[in-house]
Amino acid sequence: MIGYVTLGTNDIDRGAKFYDALLAEVGATRFMDTETFIVWAITPQAPALSISTPADGNPATVGNGVMVALGVKNTDQVDKIYAKALALGGACEGPAGLRGDSFYAGYFRDLDGNKLNVFCIIST
């Protein structure tokens, strides 16, 4: 259902370095790359994540209540990607761990303040 999600950035180069390193953890690479817009995907047919400087020329701001969730295969990947986000300068919004009976997730903000989580579903 989701084709791609775009997050605003005020520093495309800084954002590119953050997401190049972070999304490499799930095998995603740059699929489109311009001076103002970069898209990462595992395959061109899979959902993608992008960053962009705002087309209207105004500063990028964080949407209150907006969050991007990155699904992965297992808790080890959640832990690794969550830790990588923090090591890259991201901010903790909730440590990796079990929420409920089968939802395992870690929440963080990127360098521009956009909220993301990385999660997996645990079979019970």
Write the layout of secondary structure elements.
Elements: E1 4-8, H1 12-24, E2 29-33, E3 37-41, E4 48-52, E5 68-71, H2 75-87, E6 91-99, E7 103-109, E8 115-121
Parallel strand pairs: 1-4, 5-8
Antiparallel strand pairs: 2-3, 3-4, 6-7, 7-8
What does this protein structure show overall?
The chain has 124 residues and is α/β, with parallel strands linked by helices. It has one domain (4-54, 67-121): 2,3-Dihydroxybiphenyl 1,2-Dioxygenase, domain 1, CATH 3.10.180. 21% of the residues lie in helices and 38% in strands. The protein has two helices and eight strands; from the N terminus they run E-H-E-E-E-E-H-E-E-E. It has helices spanning 12-24, 75-87; strands spanning 4-8, 29-33, 37-41, 48-52, 68-71, 91-99, 103-109, 115-121. The strands form two sheets. It has a four-stranded mixed β-sheet with strand order 1-4-3-2, covered by helices on one side. Strands 5-8-7-6 form a four-stranded mixed β-sheet, covered by helices on one side. A hairpin with a 3-residue loop joins strand 2 (29-33) and strand 3 (37-41). The longest helix is centred in the first third of the chain and has 13 residues, at 12-24. The chain is globular.
